[in-house]
Amino acid sequence: MIKHVVLFKTKENAPLEIFKEKIENLKNDIPEIINIQVGIDIKFDPNSSDFCVITDVKNINDLEIYAKHPKHLEVISYIKPYIIERKVVDFKV
Predict the structure, then answer these.
(1) What parts of the sequence cross the membrane (predicted)?
(2) CB of 9 within 8 A of CB of 83?
């Protein structure tokens, strides 16, 4: 299994709860997603990111399908104007 972890810093007015809903709903449209979680930061550490996405897929091929899926790209286009920084880690479990 592959874990795809993305950390985001956003502009102050970013609608994080809407991001969470849209991203987590991708599981309904992209069968390659085994699990997807969105965590909104609790602001304990001032250097933290604002939210993260953790997606589980079976393999690299499924990760590529997820990355290029039209519904995923639609969500990206919605959140992109709010993003200041994005960091990614992909690893095998």
Answers:
(1) none
(2) yes
